[in-house]
Amino acid sequence: MREKLKAGETVELGKELVHPDGRTVTFLQEGQDEDGEYITLRHRMTQQGAVNGAHYHPLLKETFKMIEGKMRFLVDGEEITLEAGEEITIHPNQVHQFWNVSQGNLEVVHEIRPPGLHWKMFVLMHKLECEGKLTKNGIPRNPLWLGIAWKCIDGYLDGPPRFIQKIILGGLATLAENLGYKIES
């Protein structure tokens, strides 16, 4: 079964991105309800550590529902640890970061509202990682891909002023698009 993402784009429900270290991101659902458009993804991982750096989204609301394992979140300076059966919602403009602190497997369902281009960001980062084009910290080695990834995430890094990120990362994204860089989903 295929679901519509944006005009003319589809993704197969259940599409799974398998990373070299065994992590997976699976597209579960896309829809719309009284709260607007959303997508849900399932993340599975076994390696402990940081999942991302501190960042925030001006428009996105993210909900993480724990299925298995344990995750530590830092949201606007408050540390929260969740276990199976618990959930957390991160609202627009809340600075957040999270870690896998499970002793075994971690499985979490991730809802993103509105979905924007988030799935494309996961597809891009998966592709770059499989091709060995990320640093050990998960940053694209090619700054043009960094610009494209930044554009997809609808977010900002905590720290550098927003206008600087828009100029630098937005400029890289525009240059990359003009040179024909695009994400194959």
List keywords for this structure.
single chain; 185 residues; alpha+beta; Jelly Rolls; six-stranded antiparallel sheet; four-stranded antiparallel sheet; 3 helices; 22% helix; disordered N terminus
Helix/sheet category = alpha+beta
Would you identify the CATH H-level superfamily? Jelly Rolls
Order of helices and strands: EEEEEEEEEEEEEHHEH
CATH topology heading:
Jelly Rolls
Name the average pLDDT. 92
Give the number of domains: 1
CATH architecture descriptor name: Sandwich
- Major sheet: size, sense and barrel closure? 6 strands, antiparallel
Characterize the overall form.
Answer: globular
What does this structure look like?
- There is one protein chain.
- The protein is of the alpha+beta class and 185 residues long.
- It has a single domain, classed as Jelly Rolls (Sandwich), CATH 2.60.120.
- 22% of the residues lie in helices and 39% in strands.
- The strands form four sheets. It has a six-stranded antiparallel β-sheet with strand order 3-4-5-13-8-11, covered by helices on one side. The protein has a four-stranded antiparallel β-sheet with strand order 6-12-9-10, with no helix packed on it.
- Helix 1 runs antiparallel to helix 2 and helix 2 (143-153) packs across helix 3.
- It is globular and about 45 Å long.
- Mean pLDDT is 92; it is low at 1-8.
Topology:
Elements: E1 2-4, E2 10-12, E3 16-18, E4 24-33, E5 36-45, E6 49-50, E7 55-56, E8 61-68, E9 70-75, E10 78-83, E11 87-90, E12 96-100, E13 106-113, H1 118-130, H2 143-153, E14 156-157, H3 162-178
Antiparallel strand pairs: 1-2, 3-4, 4-5, 5-13, 6-12, 7-14, 8-11, 8-13, 9-10, 9-12
Helix pairs in contact: 1-2, 2-3
